[in-house]
Design brief:
The chain is an alpha/beta fold. It has two domains: 128 residues, Rossmann fold (3-Layer(aba) Sandwich), CATH 3.40.50; 140 residues, LpxI C-terminal catalytic domain (Cytidine Deaminase, domain 2). The strands form three sheets. The protein has a six-stranded mixed beta sheet, sandwiched between helices. A five-stranded parallel beta sheet has the order 3-2-1-4-5, sandwiched between helices. A hairpin with a 2-residue loop joins strand 7 and strand 8. The N and C termini lie far apart (43 Å).
Amino acid sequence: MAEPTLAIIAGAGVLPRMLSQALRATGREHLICCPHGLEPELPDNESTEVEEFFFERSISFFRSLEKRGIRQVVMVGKFHRPRSINFMRLEGSTLMAAPRILGSLRRGDDASLRALAEIIEELGLEVVGVEAVAPNLLPEPGLYASRVPSETDRSDVERAAYIVEAISAVDVGQGAVVAGGLCLATESLPGTDAMLEWVAQTRDQPPAGTRSGVLYKAPKLDQDRRMDLPAIGPTTVAKAAAAGLAGIAWEARGALLLDAERTMAEADRLGMFLWARPSLR
């Protein structure tokens, strides 16, 4: 068995499991590592031990990966900003890098992830994205449920795509909800689920038995696509349905379809469309 040259830095959610399965299917050996306190979801038969590391000692941890023959790092899943730092645990090398990381947190998620990637690469590792190691996880253009979007749906998707592009220019969010050409909500720090819950609580619901409006998701303008790609999964479908939406669209090859079979089956059950749409540009 070949020694692993790739390490997955695993956040919360199903994506670490999906990526590990995709890598194993191609025979790519890998390590799985996660920040202290996170419990990534892994396959039931996953034999790889998860290595945990502390934020306060992250620089020495990444240096140890390089010394062990790891050449590439891919960061997937949901990561939470550190709410506090244990100064008793803090090492000197991480202390020197902390101002760069903590300072970037004030400029948005993309800025903070870029800063972290730069630091990791300064330690001799290459930060890669899902597209580089498991491109099949990014859906190609097409429909992924039985329902076909109407002309009104397509118009709403186009409107939402331009709105997402506008808010992404200031590193705010990756999603928007539009119905009848009107923007009902845009994604911000609380995330997609919170946005959809707010729409469900505040919008005028369409007549019984009908749906209207769309959720659209896409990477931010000039986003570093190695990290924090938008994702759609079963929970997204359920919350979009509760908000009365007709379907979900996203930028093809720019978003991840989580638990694809479950997500597509749920969309079919609820009578919603799933559309991987070519990008605006």
